[in-house]
Amino acid sequence: MDRKATSIASSDREGTIVHDVFIESGDFGESSPQIDIKHAIEEYNELKLELSRVSRVSSVPPSKLEEGRSDKEEFNLSSYLHDMSTDNREAGQQLKHLGVVWKNVSVEGLAPDSYVIPTIVSGLISNLQIWKYFGFNGPTKTRTILNDVSGFVKDGEMLLALGRPGAGCTTLLKIIANIRSSFTAIHGSVSYGGIDHKTFARYYRGQTCYNSEEDLHYPTLTAKQTLQFALRTKTPGTRLPDETRKDFSNKLLYLLGNMLGLTKQMDTMVGNAFVRGLSGGERKRLSIAEQMTTHSTINCWDCSTRGLDAASALDYVKSLRIMTDIFKKTTAVTLYQASDNIYNIFDKVILLDEGYTMYFGPVSEAKTYFEQLGFYCPPRKSTPDFLTGISNPLERQIRSGFEDSVPKSAAEFQQRFQQSDIHKAMMEELSQVENQFDTEKSDETFKKAMDEEHQKYAPNKSPFVASFFQQVIALTIRQYQLQIKDKESLISRYGTIVVQALIMGSCFYNLPLDGSGALSRGGAIFFSVIFNSLVSQTELVNFLTGRPILEKHKQYALYRPSAFYLAQVIMDVPFALVQVILFEICCYFLLGLNLTAGRFFAFFIINVMINLTMNQFFRLFGAVTDNVFFSSQASGLILVCSHVLCGYVIPYRSMHPWLSWFYWINPIAYGFKALIINEMQGQVYSCEGSANSVPSGPGYDNWDYKVCTMIGGNAGENYVLGDNYLPQALSAYSNGLWVPNFLALVGIFIVLSLMTAIIMELRSSGSSETLTKLYLPGKAPKARTVEEENERQKKQAAITESMEGVSTGTTFSWQNMNYTVPIKGGEIQLLNNINGIVKPGHLTALMGSSGAGKTTLLDVLSRRKTIGKVDGRLYLNGEALINDFERITGYCEQMDIHQPMVTVREALQFSANLRQPAEVPRKEKDAYVEQIIQLLEMDDIADAQVGEVETGFGISVEERKRLTIGMELVGKPQLLFLDEPTSGLDAQSSFNIIRFIRKLADAGWPVLCTIHQPSAILFEHFDHLLLLVRGGHTAYYGEIGKDGRIMIDYFEKNGGPMCSPNANPAEYILEVVGAGTAGKVKQDWAEIWKKSPEAKALDEELEVIHNQADQHPNRPALTYASSFGTQLYWVHNRMALSYWRSPDYNFGRFVTIMATALIMGFTFWKMSNTVTDLRNRMFAVFMSFIVAYILIILAQPKFMTERVYFRREYASRYYGWIPFTISMIAVEVPYILFFSASFLFGFYWTAGLVNTSDAVGYFYIQVAFFVFWAVTLGFFLAALAENPSFAAVLNPLLIPMLCLFAGLMQPLQAMPRFWSSWFYWIDPIHYFVEGLSVNELQYITVECNDADLIKFLPPPETTCGNYTSNYFANGAPGYLTNPEAVQPELCGYCNYKTGKEFYSTFEWDEANRWRNFGVITAFFIFNTICFGLLVYWKRKAKR
Question: Phi/psi of residue 708, each to 5°?
Fold first, then answer.
């Protein structure tokens, strides 16, 4: 016996038996569970050869593989792994293996009725219950998820966990993987080779890995980059002699690429639902490969075959078997719809129901055990389906004579099992395993192997293989790849910087060295600080986007979270350098700032430091919370404080003591002071000119008797030193550029970085590992009695049987369908001359391997594709397709996208009322919804909120799939497309759905349905098959026949292997055409089909349809089933409900706005009528725009979320783009009115603004309509952008630019003519500020205090009044406080007499108050129209 055979034999001696699998002899059946060791060894060798053929994937294009061409050189997986294992042993490396034992484990989680759907009111009440923040929550209702479960998996063994959704399989895997944080209580013990769970979590996290159903990857990385990163952090310190890290990485990449059929995809982007990349099956294989790079000892795989075709799923489980055998890994797997071939590869199986153990023991004895209990397994039903069905009273069949003796409830099943001989044998073996842990000291062996695995400088007690330094290097490389790949964000970011810098430079062009130039310099410097801080806001979005992947990698122990953060900080530096140098080169010389090399580079380094510090500021909030709305609100609030209290808007000396402390911890303040000192230090500002001195004009030439108006001027001097201006005007001292200001900025950067790193290390995942359902109040399901359950099942059966027929049958045909998409360097054809037809009563299966083009074909046929070129003929009932096609067809897509805020019943009613014909009464539509709810067994979740899986609240993945199908069925479509309707479902749910679809077909509906892993029982429901092979070619189209004979005969007569009578025909055909990672194929089935008589007959039938078809149908066709008013009613109602049930969003907005109002109110507390407070009043009303800015930032992600649901529903023509646009804006109206009133109450009277009804009323409506404008602007920018990061880049381009040209920081007369002639007049903020400023200042009489007065000496023997008489006669503003004073007393001049004189210097007028309000309203309407046009333009997602 060769080494490979010896391996399996030794594996058998250790308790591992590899059972019957597919072989090439032609027996393509689902094998019986009888064990034949000799036969197992023979088949194991066949298994090796079968998996060995994956090398052809790496050396031959996939399409060629299925044409029967392959390389002679083959990759032998078993031999390769054996050689690796032998080399490792010879190098003295310890084998790392551990078994796991769990005893009497009970797990509790939150009960279904513990939570009701939150609303704004409940959110308010919850937030007012302050005691909850201190842990006084009161009793919480819980439910038992696992109930007294015991078991074990030895090293080198594979355990299969079976059960229906909700049975506890996933929870068991998480307990084995030591993921405990999401459960309320865990009782019992779990031992990892003698190591308790706490010790294991502390020192060996990453040696128990859990692979979830969802594929979480960075979409812009390639498959190779994804795996290389994981390998960099998991490359062991002890390797083979002379083997470098790179050699080790390449070896593993070669292994994984070949083993999982990813070699050809290594340079393809991973992609996701929104980024084109790997197919769903390929992405799943990448997730599997990524976990395999961790070299973890105990591996838990949760439904990891979801999305894989049957052949690929089998290949994957075989790969697990080989790795488990050779490396003595411990493997636990949950699978839905497992075939017998997959089932027989496992050693043990545990069957769960409602958390109880129905069976735990060898796979070979499970079926016999339940048959002996009295249950019957129908012929051709696979063992896993039989076992899972036992837990379903509707599915299980009882043998005659056993009706009274079989257990009924899950608790009875566990009790009966605990009395069985198998349980006793398993418990005895469990005790032996525990004793073996102690006697063999497996924990010490494992610890020694772990010590060897650690890289140099990595602490042995750390769970991380790589040292912190190596982690940072790997993460920095990945961060670079992520940022350099995101070209859209890079171009928009740097493009924004260049545009903004040029605009700012031209606005403040060539600042003069006089008094007005000093003020404008402050504005320009302040603006540069604002821009370099606002542009950092994109980091918050990027940081939160990567959080789910970080959490997965934390569980894998790839790296420390602080290393992840440090890598981002490191990569900030080069991008910040480029950003600031672009900004500086574009604006520094235009501004006419200090032209010395030292000042230039100081400006550069300070702005770089500001940018780096603000990056960390925003990341800090991303580290504290996962909630994008909360983090945006909190960071936005503190950013407002940073800008208001930086010393420019309100000088430090004017700040009130209760807020002035913030000035000393404000990085913006230190950055602004450093920049302004850098510019003004040593400069001399001229006071020549009429506006720069008092008095001025004819006859006032003697500087002994006049003074500069610029702060810091001395009597008798016609200049002001910048060193004098800085401390008096801005509390900045010229000797404080580097110390303390720049040093303080560096210090804050370090503190923020340390805080973020520490929080990331200490903070556990915010997302729940279990899904908690949220119900309408009082609607949580209650346990049913036996009678109630029987009644429910009868009702369901009656509805199924009485399925109404379709009066007009629909025939849909497609001929010569070709689809090409552009790629770099050309284009690629994904579909090649695909033909087919579905007729009334046809249930057609669309099958093929992963990546063959099944979903692509459905997208093309359903007219969902927006990218690429589609050619071919499509006819519906002998007519060319017209505008009602999307409405009368239903398409259940693979991605279950639903509005998360509504309940299941509300979602179905929404679909039914919009998609069924308008003449059908609403009562009848709602009654049909109730039928579908019964039919799809959704009674218990009908009043549960749909929710989102990522948040931990909502319905399960399986329930979501049923809802997707229900959403289409309630619309009563004439033609039904379904893409993977059973993916992720258990066998019974799959059976129910396929049986129901069969009923639809029998009632006259034509159905085209893709399916990946059908059992023989599922497959027999289909009557026609369209089989695709890689490259988008047809391998077969036609009838399936009874037991698949027509289809099987076609393949057998054309040279395919013989198929035995007990075969699963679906697995047979996939195997024949070379599906799976180890696709073995002897012929080119696409060519055989083209030449076949069946293909010719189909062509002839399609030609007849084409020749008789009406190419220009003129029948009346409605794009939408319902009227515009009905659409608007339903869409707006659902939107309003969504907002009402979003307390995080709306209550959060309220808190942010109130906090902003109070902070601003107390900052400008009770302003007086002095000249200083005139300026402060104007800045106070100007800063009101911050409310609008906050709402812009928060509105954008909200719209982008809603757009996802709109695009899905628009594709099926639920409703048009106009109702959506109107609803999106109309739903905001009551909230904006309330928020504006809240801001008024919090800010207006605390700031001491003018308290007249006219002024207050105008302030309210001006702010309200300005916020309307702002929110619609936010929607407009979000509609323009496809992702939040791009929108976050647009905000700092547009908003600061509008502030810049509002006429406050740079008055109209100081603006260059280019900007003042047009942009100033189309700037909404100009009209907002002018309106509020004149509204506030028109009735103010100025009362200067001593600090406001400009003092100068009058000529001898002349009173101040006489001396300045000509000055005032020439129209000068202001007044003298002591007109009768003579020398030596100084004249006291107050700049302004009234508020009107002050705002007149800005060329504003109180007569324009209502004009300004009207212009703001017009801008709001303009935004709404532009927003609607963008919604229309981008109504379809790119696909």
Answer: -70, 140
Cβ atoms within 10 Å, residue 401? 8
Give, for 640, the enclosing helix (H) or strand (E).
Answer: helix 628-644
Where does residue 825 rank: exposed (0-12), middle (13-18), buried (19+ CB within 10 A)? exposed
Joined together, the tokens standing for residue 1258 give 């105008």
Strand 826-838 vs strand 693-694: parallel, antiparallel, or unpaired? Answer: unpaired
The pLDDT tens digits for 216-258 are 888 888 889 999 888 888 888 777 777 788 888 888 888 888 8
Distance between CA atoms of residues 83 and 96, nearest Å = 17
Sorted by sequence, the CB contacts under 8 Å of residue 1315 that are 6+ apart come out as 506, 507, 1301
Other residues' Cβ atoms within 10 Å of the Cβ of residue 298: 25
CB atoms within 10 A of CB 1299: 19
Question: Quick one: tokens of 268?
Answer: 């393809």
Confidence of residue 751 (pLDDT cuts 50, 70, 90): very high
- In this structure, the chain runs to a length of 1439
User: 806, 1004 in Cβ contact below 8 A?
Assistant: yes
Q: What CA–CA distances, in Å, run from 545 to 216, 480, 706, 720?
A: 11, 16, 61, 51
Give the count of beta carbons closer than 10 Å to the beta carbon of residue 436. Answer: 15
Beta strands 975-979; 889-892: pairing state: parallel
**β-strand pairing of 185-192 with 1375-1376:** unpaired
Q: Among 1182, 1186, 1163, which Cα is nearest to 1304's?
A: 1182
For the entire predicted model, the pTM comes to: 0.80
Asked whether residue 1081 carries a pLDDT value surpassing 60, the answer given is yes
Average pLDDT estimate for 408-434: 90
pLDDT per residue as tens digits for the range 157-167: 999 999 887 78
**Is the CB of residue 669 less than 8 Å from the CB of residue 647?**
yes
Q: How far apart are CA 1249 and CA 1228, in angstroms?
A: 28
Are residues 169 and 352 in contact, defined by beta-carbon separation less than 8 angstroms?
Answer: yes
* Contacts for 815 with CB less than 8 Å, ≥ 6 apart: 835, 872, 873, 1099, 1102, 1103, 1105, 1106
pLDDT band at 1438 (very low <50, low <70, confident <90, very high): confident
Whole-angstrom distance, CA of residue 265 vs CA of residue 286: 10
Sign of CA dihedral 1279, 1285, 1291, 1294: negative
3, amino acid identity: R
Record the tokens describing residue 365, joined without a space. Answer: 């004895």
Say if CB 1242 and CB 1184 are below 8 A apart.
no
Confidence of residue 90 (pLDDT cuts 50, 70, 90): low
Q: What is the rounded CA–CA span in Å between residue 804 and residue 800?
A: 9
Q: What are the distances in angstroms from CA 382 to CA 158, 338, 692, 898, 1017?
A: 19, 8, 94, 34, 9
For the chain, give the mean pLDDT.
83
What is the Cα–Cα distance from 1222 to 1240, expressed in whole angstroms? 27
Q: DSSP letters of 1140-1162? A: HT-HHHHHHHHHHHHHHHHHHHH
The terminus-to-terminus CA distance of the chain in angstroms comes to: 54
Tell me the chain's radius of gyration from C-alpha atoms: 37
Q: Which residue, among 853, 870, 858, has the nearest Cα to 818 in the 3D structure?
A: 870
Sequence-ordered list of residues with C-beta below 8 angstroms from that of 239, at least 6 positions apart, any chain: 91, 245, 247, 248
Residue 742: band (very low, low, confident or very high) from pLDDT cuts 50, 70, 90: very high
pLDDT tens for each residue of 700-726: 888 888 888 888 888 778 889 999 999
Distance CA 259, CA 245 (A): 21
Structure tokens at 1039: 């009838």
Using an 8 Å Cβ cutoff, are 560 and 468 in contact?
yes
d(Cα 756, Cα 860) in Å, to the nearest integer?
47
Distance CA 619, CA 614 (A): 9
Helices (H), 91-189: 120-128, 169-176
Residues 6 or more apart in contact with residue 372 via CB below 8 angstroms: none
Residue 35: is its pLDDT beyond 70?
no
